[in-house]
Structures are given as structure tokens and as C-alpha cells.
Amino acid sequence: MVLQRKRLADGLTVTQKVFVRSRNGGATKIVREHYLRRDIPCLSKACKKCINIVVPDAKNELPTFVLSENPAKLANGSRHYVVLDANIVLQAIDLLENPACFSDVIIPQIALDEIRNKSYPIYTRLRTLCRDSDDTKRVIVFHNEFSEETFVERLQGESINDRNDRAIRRTCSWYAQHLKEYAINVLLVTNDRGNLEHAIKEGLNAKSLADYVELLSNSDDIKDALPNLETFRSKDKDLEARSEFKFPDYYSTARIMGGIKSGVLYQGSVQISEYNFLEGSVSLPNFSKPVLILGQKNLNRAFNGDQVVVELLPQVEWKAPSTVVLDSEHFDVNDNPDGDEGQTVEEETISDKQRRLLVQDAIRTQKSGKVQPTARVVSITRRSWRQYVGQIAPTSIDLQNGGTQNAFVVLMDKSLPKIRIRTRRAKELLGKRIVVTVDSWPDTYKYPLGHFVRELGDVESVEAETEALLLEHDVEYRPFSKKVLECLPADGDEWKAPEDLSDPEAISKDPLLPKRRDLRDKLICSIDPPGCVDIDDALHAKQLPNGNWEIGVHIADVTHFVKANTPLDAEGASRSTSVYLVDKRIDMLPMLLGTNLCSLKPYVDRFAFSILWELDGDANIVNVDFTKSVIKSREAFSYERAQLRIDDPNQKDELTEGMRALLQLSIKLKQKRLDAGALNLASPEVKVHMDSETSDPGEVEIKKLLATNSLVEEFMLLANQSVARKIYDAFPQTAMLRRHAAPPATNFEILNEMLQLRKGMSISLESSKALAASLDRCVDPNDPYFNTLVRIASTRCMMAAQYFYSGAYSYADYRHYGLAVGIYTHFTSPIRRYCDVVAHRQLAAAIGYEPLDLSHRDKSKMEFMCRNMNKKHRNAQFAGRASIEYYVGQVMRNNESEEIGYVIRVFHNGIVVLVPKFGVEGLIRLENLTDDEQSAEFRAEEFKLSFKQGASKEMKDIYIFDKVNVQVKSILDPVTSKRKAQLLLK
Amino acid sequence: MVLSITEKLYLHESLASKPPARPDGRNADQFRPIEIFTDFLPTSNGSSKIVASDGTECIVSIKCKVVDRAVEEELVVVDVDIAGHRDDSTLVQGIASILNRLLVSQMDQMSLRLTKKYSFKLFIDVLVLSSYSHPLTLISLAIYSALNSTQLPTLISSDDDLDVAELPTFHDYDMSKLNVKVPLLFTLAICGKNVIVDPAASESDVANNGVLVTWNDGKVVAPVRTLGLNEDYVRGICPQSLVDSIRMVEELAPKILKALDN
């Protein structure tokens, strides 16, 4: 087939792009018309020709010329621009962002397309670079595919990559030719060997990344940040490292697709066990329980959270989940980063027919015994790689060596393997928290290869640890960008709610104002934790003439300020939630809104979204009304102060009476909820008190609950339910809701077995009500804490609640199991949760206040939002917990003590003990339990570990749920430099 | 052009005379000039356009789809559309059924085979833009040239997927030529004792009968059958005419194939 170019007009030509798309086994020939033009400028300020050809774009703006007329000089003195191949951007985006190098960069459009397909985050980072071009860094995209001069046609027998490489070379040579007269060199930087060789053959100025960095005058500073890749310039040392060890190859796409279609391969995401980094599991749709993946070879380079394709192993290799604790920090500590060794495994092929039989066996086995089907990873669909925080393992480096050397970086996340980096500054970086990225994991390497990105600071310093945990949990903590801040009201702090809602001047600014109801006469107050500045909610109660109560819940009207489709909205959606650390809060919305304009502060007028109920004496809803409003809170209470005021019999004013009524009604509401089967679960929550002056952590306290806590909580739950019902009525397909699925019985199997064996108790799973009742029955008269312990254990067996849009599930599945309500959403904290923002917009549309934005009516957009919310919500929780853990460690650093603990897991080589006082749990390894490790005996079916204890050499049995005395002290792990509670049995 | 009874009689007698005198001066075994263009539809896998000197014009497009042989057995489907004739008319349906049966039975299905489970299925769309004489020969020639210019996606995954299932995956650009023996159909008209090939419209009107002869892989094959070309002159066929027809095709076909393949 011969492709022709047809001239349409002056400067416009049409040609065709032809390709074959294989999808689901089909092959479709696709022909696209492709238009070429002559008016694409080079965007160099030096160029005097292109200025004559440019045409304005759709917004009638002319392109800006970005590249400097006097670009940076190489070490040899020549001025240059750089054309980058896609692989350079993908591998070294950090380097590209580094202000010390890459000052004038041209990205061919074809490379940009490839980058977008391979990694969207890197693509957005590159786009940001292009957008923010300034004096130090100028990055442009040249649309080579649309330029008549640089478009290349694909040749017969040429792979698409070769064709794209050729297009990049053509772009480079065009630039070189174009800018020749201005004495600017154009340099192609690529790490693709073929491309490089061709470029040099064609007489282009081309270099690999490493060679290019050599050419820079400040090359020494930059070398460290070079990505560690198995480049074609094989380094001598790496040859050793690439010894016999080899991971199994991944399957071809054809095999994966065919296998998944015929039901012999399965796709899922890997969850690495928190106790054993060589044990992973994959939840698969057909199986009732996750399928195990055991060992390095079977995991086959999968990281925690990767999307993988697995195949079942033959029956002889099925195993019980391991009872050994193993983490990457203590495994192969002495492995040499310069040499990996391993052994080869013979394997036989199994036909698909046999595999299908195997699947049936596997499903049957899962239902019965202890032995579990195992699988192995045959392909990785999507990597979960991001930047990781860790520190250099001291044993892995040679302190005498001043030059570049290999080092292992042990990551903070214990379920991930060490990362091998090459650095010149190993000695300097020792004892620092550093950020690294994973570049690749070739099959001949035992550990993934990565490179150093930046250092965060000394291990244990508050700044480094806080930043580390934010990074680790993927929390966006950078300040809000200028674009986002521009969306805030122009008045800033001065913003005031209009005095009079019918004031024509105010209406001209905000045409929706007349739709607001003036509730400034209501006696509204807010009750929050002490020191709370982002007040989301306020309440009021008033007795009606008929004896019923008018109850109002007023929620900060965030959507008045955060309009859909603004950069502010996009930022909020991407952050999805505020993150609360012990000493710090990472806001979802800029300070001005969160703590001032939206916050329902006392004594000032604020916009609110109000829900007004009429409740009868038994807290039954007689009527409900939703409205946007203006309110004036009379007082902001803390839980304690509210409690004191209610309890004080001398206070007889209307506000206090209202609060008393709220309290009475909330007790009735709670009782109703409990009767319906709401769960009262527990987690070992503690609070760290900070010394107010030095902000050093002082002491740890278990959170106390007051009646006023549940006062607020009950009305928020009621509000959320009322709103959920309303928006579901208005938007049956896309209402923003939250659900909590009933836990599958299998989750409770082991816990029930433990309870049965040790205490003769059991947890019923018939309904949430039965579960609540059976939890109440799990009481050990000798140990009041035991019930809480069981609740903590049950919480861990529960499913996580999730955000969803109503079209994603059927009505029966909307249930919130934990709260025992049929439909639920989050509406009451729009300042710190994005779900609530969406719910606000949908409710506003439902009551006819303003039309709903399209994005909240589109299933696929809602799906995307929900997924992000669920992820960010989980991360925020983990980050908060990690922060507490860190501070608890710091507290304990100063006070070593002996505490009561409970055994919550028993392993082959250790036990896990929970210390309620600090809310910490820690592993006690067998070697710390006994001197005679050989004597230890582990009985999995009894959850018992016996060993000879101390000097007496008496056998001691430790069972699950045993109450033990432990010595708690904080130690710094020498390998991970992570401070954690060390527990020793007394 | 409608001929009067006398004109028809005159024409019939000319054609029946020895040697036959054809109105356009052709020999009995001579075709009208035709023009063929191939591969002119970018989105299809193969295409051809044929134009005969009397203005009959026909376009053939070939598209492919990957199918599981266990599900779909017929790997070739021909769809015929003739301008000015309803889809359910005898002419259209007759031609479609002849072509379908012929291609399914005569074409080597192995050449469409991809793996042990999957094959290409070909969709042959025939569009006759204008027809002044019986279009079957022209359609057949067009299909022949279209199939011979057909480029199918190149399989890059393994072709053995019986034990270990694989979904076929294709090269994103390269195509491979379809290699297949395509049968040709010849229509001949019988006038008296004469046999003439490629009858023009006026000749068809006065022919005593029509014969359809199939040629595949160097020999005459089934089906060989009669074809009613008009309603007034049709008579029975004498065996000698059949033998003559087959002999004429045997002589002609190699020359025509040679012309088409060049």
C-alpha cells in the first residue's frame, strides 16, 4: 500500500496513517487521515524565520517563543539545545526537573505521546515543566508529527519504535539544520542503543544520557542522580552481579490474553504480607480466599500493589500460609550489592486442560483445609512503582571506597525488597532518610535497580520523618499552586456574608443569594475537639409549639467557594481528604477557606448548608428540609466544655436547653441504631500530648469518649442518611454514596477458631446485629480489656467502607454494615473530605439551588473520583497512624517501662504482642524469647508456641490472647534506622 | 437497447452461422476489453474495481475478521449488491448463492488459518454499479484480482494454541499477502451450434442458452451449469455444446489468468 501526500491548500497536506489494532484477538485495519502543515515554529528566540510563519491558535493567541537565544554552554564551550528521546524522560524525569542541567529542551511530540502512554504521572510532570518554563529551564514540545518537514512515513517491515526513533532523529536533524546559522548546536540524547547508533551514522550529534552529563561543566554534581539502568554500556562490576541468578521470564501478551480469556490465568493485585515479605496473596474473582504466592521466584519481581497476572502452581506445591516472620531488612542482610547469586529451577509445562482441572481443585481446597492453592506471577500488568523513602544499609557499602559504588537502600515499607542504587555519596548519605526511585528490575538481578533522588534529612529528625511518611503514603503536601489560590475570593480575609439577603448590590454579585434562607436568629453552636479551627458543622435545637423539636444541622458551605471545574476543585478532588498528623495538618483546601471563610466560626455570619428536621419526642423524623442558609454561631464549644455546660444545673438559658435536648435526642438515636445492629468496634487509638512550648511529645493517652462526642456524631449520621436518601432520589445513577459491605465469613475463620479454642466463645456472622450481640458476649470476667481486644481483632476482619456512586451497585448493596443503615453518604465535613463536596453539589442540585456539574452526572468520572477518594482516604488513615507510631516511639524513648500486653499472633519464630497503653504492637522474635531456639515448638492448630525460658530452662507455653508482661523500650533498628517499640517478655 | 423481433432474428442467425458473426466483430473466444484497478480502498484488506467496455462496472472489497473455528465454520462470506436490483431478486440471490457455494467449496481454507483454533474469516462485498450484460464473469474476475491483492495482518504470536491458550496478536503495521487459489467463472452463450464467450447484452438476448463453467487450479471443475440468459430463445442444450464450452474455457482460461496476474 503506497501512502500518498495530497496537497489541500498552501501549507496544508493530507496523508494517511495506517495501522493494525489487535484487540481481544481481533485484527482491525485502521486508517486515519493525517494533516501536515508548514506553520509549526521552532520556538527558539534566536530564530528569525519562524516568526513569519506562525499563525494564531483557537484562542487567537500567537505561540510564545521559549527557547533561549543564548542557551547553556557545554564544557567545550558550544551553546546547545537538547532533543530528548522518550526513554530519557521516562528514566530521568527527576534529572530533567533538576535546575542544574537541561536548560533548553525540545521534546518531540512523538516522544511525548510515548511518555503519556507509558506513565501518566511522568507525563504530567513533563507538562508542568513545559508550562512553567522560565529563566532557568525552558522545555518545549515540537509537534514533529504535524510538521510537513519532519513527518516520516513508516517503512515496510519497520517496527513502530524504529519509525518513531527515526521521527525523533528527523526532528533533531531538522532543528540542527534550522538553527545552524545561529550557532546553536542541537544534541540528541537517547539511551536507546539502536537510535544512538543510527543517529551517529546519520551524522547527528547524539549522546547517551551518561555521556551527555559528562559533557556538562557541572557534571560531578549531577552524576549521582543518574538513573541506574542496565544500559548497553555494561559496567564491569555489573557483569558479576548478573551471575547465574535469573527470574522466570514473563509470558507474552498473546499468552496472557489467551490465558485470561480461557480461564487459566488470572489477574489481580498483589498484597504482600506485612509479616513476611516473601509471601504475597492475590484476590481473584473466582476464589473465595486470596491465592498465595510464596517465595521470590514465584513472586517474580512483583511489588506490593502491582497489578499482576498469575497462574496456579501444580498441586504438589500448594502450601499453608507461612508461619514464619520474615522482613526484607533482616533477610540476607549480608547480601553483597555487587553480587547476586541464585539457583535455577527446572519446570515442566502443563497444558491448559490440566490447568482448568487444577482451578477446580484449588477452589475446592480453599473451602476445606489448611493447605492453600499457590500461584506464581507470570506477568506484571501495571507497576505500582513510585518514589520510595528508605536509607542505605550500612553493611552494603564500603566506607573506604570514595568513588561510585553499589549500595542497598532498605525501604521504610517492610513489604518491599531492598533497592540497589549506584552512588558516589554512599558514605555521606549513611544515616539519612533518602528518596529513591525504582528504574527497572531485569530478570537477572535479585534486587530492583533504582537511583537516588534527594535526601530528606537525618534519620529520626522530625522534619525528615514527617516528610518521609507523607511521601510514603502518597500525600500531596506541597503548598497550593498559584492557579489554585487564584480561585479564592478576591476579598480574602475581608470576605463577609451580606447583611441583607435581599440587598440588590449583593444579589448582583451572587444571583443565587435570594435562594438562601436567613437562619441568623437560630441559637446555633458548634462542638468540636479542643483547638479545632476547621469547624465543619454546627447544631441547633428548638422546641416547636406542637411539642416536637426542630433540629438543625448546619454544614459549612464549601461549594459556594469551590465551584466545579476550577483548578481549586481539581486540587481538592486530587487530594480528596485532609490528613491529620500528630503535629501537623495537611489541608485539602487552602487555609483561607478551611479555617476562615468556610469554617463556622462563632460570632460571625457564615454561609451554610442546613438540614432542618422536625423530630418527635422519640427522635423519629416527622419532616426534613434542606436549604442553603446564612447562620451565626453563638458559641464554639470543645467536647469537654459542652459537657460541662450541659451538666451545670445553673445554666438555664435557651442555648443550653437546646444542647440538652440535642443530647437527649442523640441518646435515643444511638439506641435505635444499636437496636438495628450497629457495631461498636474498637481500634487501639491513642493520642499524643505535645508539650506546648517545645512541641516535644510528652505523654501518650488513650482517647476518651464523652457523651457530647456521640451527640455530634449521632446528628451527623442522621444528616448523612437524610442527604443520602435525597440525592439518591434525585440522581439514582450517580449519587455519591458510601457503603460498608458485610464481612465474608472466611475473614473470621481464624479468629473464631482462636476464640473457640482458647475461650470457648465465638462470633456470629449472621447479621450485624448478631455480630454486635456476640461481641458483647465475648467477655472474660477476669480481664475487662479482653472484650476490647476481641473488638480490635474483629475490626481487622471487617471490610473497609468505601465511597461509590449509586450506579455501581444495586440498592441492596448500598448498606452500611457497621452503622446498620440502608443508605449512607458523607456530607458533614466538606472542608476536609471531597466526597462531602460532591454530596453538597448534588444536594444543591436536588433542591433546585443550582444545576449539577456534568462531571457529577457522569458515571465514568464518578468512578474515577470514587477510586481516588478511597485510595486517598486509606492513605490518610495510614499516614495518621504512622505519625502516631513515630511519636509514640519518641515518647517511649524517654520512658522505658513494663506494661501489660496481649498476644495477638503466634508465629513459628516469634509472637506479636499488643500493648494497649501505647496502642503499639510489636514482634518478639524467638531469639529474644529464649536462649535455646532449638527447644521451641510451634503448634499452629493450637496457636501455641512453647520454648524453654531463661535460666530455669522450664518450658513455657504462650498461647494466643495470653496476657503477658512486657518490657517496652524504644530502640533504633540498626538496619532500617527506624525507631520502634521493642518488647521483651518478662 | 431494445431490439425488434426482426433485428433479434437477424442477430440470432448471424451468431448461429459458421463462424459466428458477432455484432461487435469479436471472435467466438474473444472477451470485451476490460480495465481493472486493485487496492484502491485504504480501509479494506483488498479491493478491486473492474470496468467493461459496455460500461458494466463492479467493485469488490475484502475485509477480514479473526474467528474461532469452533464457533464459525464458514470462513468466506460473499455479499452481492447490484444497482437497480432488489436484494431479494432472483438475479442477486442467484449470483450470491453461486459465489458463496463456489468460494466455500473451492477455496483452500487452510490459507486463512492462523492458529490451531483461530482463522481469518473473509467478507467479500461485491457491488455492481451498473450492469448491461450478465455480470457474473466480471464479478468473478474482480473477486479474483481483489483476493490476489489482499493483505492480511501478520500474526506475531505463536500458531500453536491448542494446549496453551493464546489470543492471536498481530503486527501493528506489517501485512502478509494472502496466497490462495481463486476459482474463475466464465459465462458462455450458445447460439445454434456455436459457443461464444462473454456475451454482450444483445447477444444474451438471442442466445439459445447460457453455460457457466468454473475454472480452478488449472482445470475445469464443478459447477458447470446452464444459465438462462433470456426468455424468448431459450432451448434445450445439446451435449456437444457443453463439450465445446468446456474446451473453449480450457483454451481461454490460462491466457486470461496470465493477463490478470500481470
Automatic annotation (TrEMBL), chain A:
**GO MF annotation: an example:** 3'-5'-RNA exonuclease activity
Q: Which GO terms describe its biological process?
A: CUT catabolic process; nuclear mRNA surveillance of mRNA 3'-end processing; rRNA catabolic process; rRNA processing
Q: Name one GO cellular component term.
A: nucleolus
Q: What is its main location?
A: cytoplasm
Q: Which InterPro entries match?
A: Dis3_CSD2, NA-bd_OB-fold, PIN-like_dom_sf, PIN_dom, RNase_II/R, RNase_II/R_CS, RNR_Ribonuclease, Rrp44_CSD1
Region described as Disordered = 329-350
CC cofactor: Mg(2+)
Q: What region holds the S1 motif domain?
A: 889-986
* Acidic residues composition-biased segments: 335-349
Alphabetized UniProt keyword annotations: Cytoplasm, Endonuclease, Exonuclease, Exosome, Hydrolase, Nuclease, Nucleus, RNA-binding, rRNA processing
Q: Which family does it belong to?
A: Belongs to the RNR ribonuclease family.
What is the protein name given in its UniProt record?
Answer: Chromosome disjunction protein 3
Q: Where in the cell is it found?
A: Cytoplasm; Nucleus, Nucleolus
Extract the SUPFAM superfamilies matched here: Nucleic acid-binding proteins, PIN domain-like
From TrEMBL, chain B:
**Which Pfam family is one of those matched by this entry?**
RNase_PH
Q: Which GO terms describe its cellular component?
A: cytoplasmic exosome (RNase complex); nuclear exosome (RNase complex); nucleolus
Assigned keywords, A-Z: Cytoplasm, Exosome
Assign the protein's first listed, main location to one coarse class. cytoplasm
Q: Where in the cell is it found?
A: Cytoplasm; Nucleus, Nucleolus
Q: Where in this chain does the record put each Exoribonuclease phosphorolytic domain? A: 30-153
Query: Could you tell me which Gene3D superfamilies the record lists for this protein?
Result: GHMP Kinase, N-terminal domain
An example GO BP is: rRNA catabolic process
Kindly list the GO molecular function terms attached to this UniProt entry: mRNA 3'-UTR AU-rich region binding
Family (UniProt): Belongs to the RNase PH family.
Q: What is this protein called?
A: Ribosomal RNA-processing protein 42
Originating species? Lachancea nothofagi CBS 11611
